[in-house]
Amino acid sequence: MFSPGTKRQNLNRRKDRSQVQTPFDSHSPVTPLAENRKSQYDNNSIPNRPSTGTPAPWAPRLSVLARIPPAGKSEKGDEIDPIKPVFVGEFPQVVRDEKISFLRRHVSGDACISGGMDKGTCLSWIICGDRLFIWNYLSTASNNCIILEIPSNFLDNGDTGRNSYNAGSWLLSIVNWDSTSRQASKVVPHCNSVGIVLCNQKTRAIVYWPNISGGTTPNSQRHGSKVRSSLISTTSFNSLITSAVPDTQQTCVALTCSSDGELWQFYCSPTGIHRNKIYHEISNLASQSSDSGQLTGSKGYPRSLIWGFSLFSMKEPNRQFFLLTDHEILCFDIKLGPDLNVSKLWSHEIVGTDGDLGIKKDLAGQKRIWPLDVQVDDQNKVITVLVATLWKDRLSSSSYTQYSLLTMQYKSGTNIHSDVHDRVLEKKAPIQVIIPKARVEDEDFLFSMKLRVGGKPSGSAIILSGDGTATVSHYYRSSTRLYQFDLPYDAGKVLDASVLPSAVDGEDGAWVVLTEKAGIWAIPEKAVVLGGVEPPERSLSRKGSSNERSAQEERRNLTLAGSVAPRRVSSDAWDAGDKQKAAMAGIARRTARDEESEALLGHLFHEFLLSGKVDGSFKRLQESGAFERDGETSVFARTSKCIVDTLAKHWTTTRGAEIVSMVSTQLRDKQQKHNKFLQFLALSKCHEELCSRQRHSLQTILEHGEKLSGMIQLRELQNMISQSRSTGVGSPHSHSEINISGALWDLIQLVGEKARRSTVLLMDRDNAEVFYSKVSDLEEVFYCLDRQLQYVISVDQPYGMQIQRACELSHACVTIVRTAMQYRIEHNMWYPPPEGLTPWYSQPIVRNGMWSIASFMLQLSNEKLRLDMSAKSDVYAHLEELAEVLLEAYTGAITARVERGEEHKGLSNEYWNRRDALLDSLYQQVTFSGAADYQDMYESAEEKNVEILKKLSSSLLPIAKRHEGYKTMWKICCDINNSELLRSLMHESMGPTGGFCQFVFKQLYEKRQFSKLLRLGEEFPEELSVFVKYHRDLLWLHEVFLHQFSAASETLHMIALSEDDGSLSAAEDDVDTDCVASEPTLSDRRRFLNLSKIAAMAGKDADSVTKVKRIEADSKILKLQEEIIKVLPADGLLRPEELIELCLKSENPELALQAFDVFAWTSSSFRKSHRNLLEECWKNAANLDDWVQLYQVSIAEGWSDEETLQQLRDTLLFQASSRCYGPDAETIDEGFDEVLPLRQENMEVQTLKDSVEAILMQHKDFPYAGKLMLTAIMLGSIKDDVKDGEGPSPMESHISHGAH
After folding, report:
1. For a tag site, which of 380, 476, 1045, 1195 has the least CB within 10 Å?
2. Average pLDDT of 349-353?
3. Do the bridges between strand 237-244 and strand 205-209 make them parallel or antiparallel, or are there none, so unpaired?
4. For residue 767, what are the contacts with CB-CB under 8 A and spacing of at least 6?
5. Cβ(1276)–Cβ(1214) below 8 Å
């Protein structure tokens, strides 16, 4: 798409040299000797190849995946150019020999070689004469090439001149018999597993090789007959696709479309080829053929065929394919069987009156639209269409072609396998303009263009032109970037392009291209990203212009855009950075109405300059649509930009010092004209309209004034620097080379060079001239500081020079931004409402540039041993100024984001980190210099502190206060030990979240200076209340101070039982952090419970008695844990359930009983929610006594009731029953009966866990000693001082519940 990027040597010199060395001499053998073959071919097989060009690398290589260099790596010796293509493989030797022989038999201008690549099989092919060569370009055995003879009666003997784009062109499709549901990304199929279908576009000849392993005779069929010879000569096939037929042996179906609107089907088998015309006129299938907007029966359509899904399985009986016509995409379904039924599924109009569906037609200035090619990605999700549009400029009456990419996707919820339905597709993204204005080409050239998708970077596409150029289009950082494939020597045409298989499933591979003369090359992803340039307004072809321009202008454009190698402009690291190129997007979207509005505005403004009148201007501009666009695309913003970016004509005849002496005058003239423009807007009432409807446009216009003022001050600064460096050397070159030299001048040269080399019209201008002219691009100063600072300040320079140059650049940045801020203050009434608008100096590109120089100065300031006092003072002064404007820029950016409701956490974190780094460094420099200045002058520390305070207060402290640099403010107050200053700052810096007060409280809290914190909080009660809410160990003290005893009791209660961060063990003043336990002990917790009890009693609330009981119960649990951990060690505070489980695991009778105590001291809700655990406690109590032995002894000794009672008192069941159900049992809330009754009320109901009795009935000893077990729990539940004769025996009253 671009012209070749290298200069050609003189043709006559090459011609003379080639006559001496050419291998095509009649005395040369047809096949060179083996030892001479390489050198002969290397030197002369490529016509017009410069002797200094890179030789074709025809030595054996590694596999292609190993040859592509990883990003950031370099080979031994030389670094790899990241934007250059990478060699993949050479042509097989047999191909090279055939090409030499073929070129010998033909005149160079008439020789035509066809070729292509297949993505699925990684096969490449070339046709030389009547021979077809096929080889695997990923195989290391590059000489493993299959040669197929094309039947002579199917060759086209007509016009095969190279000036005809389609002459001698063959369509070839490879049928992979081993095709599965996965692409061949891991294993590349061998050549013997594929078939070949070959079609001549012009003669419509079809040749079929079922198996290319060799030895088979191709089946062929000549499409047409002598009767239809006229049809054959006037139309040609445009596209060919093939697919294997399932459940057959080496049988496939081929589909072709022709320029006369026909769709043909070929059934290819080893026995022959059968053809069938599916549709005679595709236009009849159009959903709105009568209103297609294009010429009826448009030449060259239908254009392209493509399978709808590339991951095809041979077992699937149906496939879908797309057909591109002159105004729509048709989708068909084909049944891959003996009948080969083809049916239409749906159609989608891409060129019509509805711009939301595709491309809007019938626009002003629009003459013709050509859909050129269509491709589908591997996931069958995105359909990409290459489109060319012919436009006519209504002002200049010149025509131009615009190239763009239209991306479509299936609408959400669409079933692509269903029947015909409307509006299947929708736009995936706005139309991507590749080249806004290119020369007008003939249709043959347009129809020769092909599109390929699927390579890296993701979303990129490659466009192939019939004249052999290949260009990768990639949407990168809000703009389209183009990368042209070219080599430093003549590689001939690019025959085709494909995508390398990726090592990872689901990822794209790198682009790979097949050249005519130099083999196969890959384009790494990094090359496309770094080597891409913005779209130029020039042709896609290599030939001369067909538009109405002078030959001189055309030669100039070709020289600047071609010989300079556009993509190599980016090799100098000139990429777009963070700045969005909205101007190019504006060109792509501009209409004739916009151009008319802009011309009218220019005319009215010119009349205002002459007469000072604005009569009717507002109405005329409003009727022209001047107020319809906002932002940089507004006609007002574009006119303002034109004023500030005007390039003075007489500057072109001056150089060096003569230029810089005129700069100030030119800038003042621009400023005066821009002020006149503002007056015009105000007097014509346009300012009021812009302020209410187009805030972005008005802001852009005023920012042009800010930048212009900044540029003027920057020029004055440069003059001052130049004058200060004047040495009075008598050399005539001393002024331009010595006086001007400096960091700022080098930066000006760097920025000017970037702008000059990226804009064709500025290539012949001086760098300084370009810099001072491109006022609207003042952000580029900061971009170069961010990306190219190492070229302005080198680490190899002397240390003192680094400091001087850094301070100079810092002063320049401060001058620009402060001037812009001052302009905004002075013209405040002109600005629109600022809500949500980000100033230009708060954009990321400006902030990052200032931070780059600031961080470099931070590094310099850390070199204290290498800095003298004068250098330290300079670094501090400039860094302080830079920090102030940088932090102001961050404030503006964050404020705008907050007002727009956008996420700002990341930006705020960046702001805070950089603020703290700057303020900390500045404070360290001040304290270091202050200590050195005053250590000999003052013996009193107080006097020294006062002097340091004066210095800090005058400069650093206001910056810290303005940007909430609380850390620096705190350090200042602590180092000078000034409590009055601290209180004053706390009063002045009180924000919605407490501001500096909260920070001071936090610092005192971390130092455990609680008494100071609370005493200071008496002066700031509201801020202290907020702080202590998040620090409960101080909250209770504050509540006691406020006489809120009930609240203090609750706080202490929570602290005592807190599991995450308990309160501190002590709250004394000035306690060392290392001496304070990180977690309170159990005794500390009990102490807090005692304090909570006292506070509850002091509160005298209605529920204070209940609170006291709850506190006492928790205190008992804590005391119980203290006793338990003496037996079973445990860390930290245990929850009640953990304490119970610990008791159960111990198998200790005493601990088993204490588990019941824990249940008793917890709440009723706890017992209900942990009923299973309570049941386990009863089972454990039953297991810890030997009931069988007790039963046997009672039988043997014949125990009386008194003896039985005496023996059962010592069992755990008796004691547990007494603690839980006895008359002296103490529980919180409801008793145990509500959760687990002692007795089973209804023995007939089979619920064996409804009571303690039911639990015991499941015990293994219950059949023998059940009566004793039940007697134990019943005796425990009544008074334990039962005596003889006082009522019935417990055993008798429960005789009915004996063991069964």
Report:
1. 1195
2. 89
3. unpaired
4. 748, 749, 752, 753, 756
5. yes
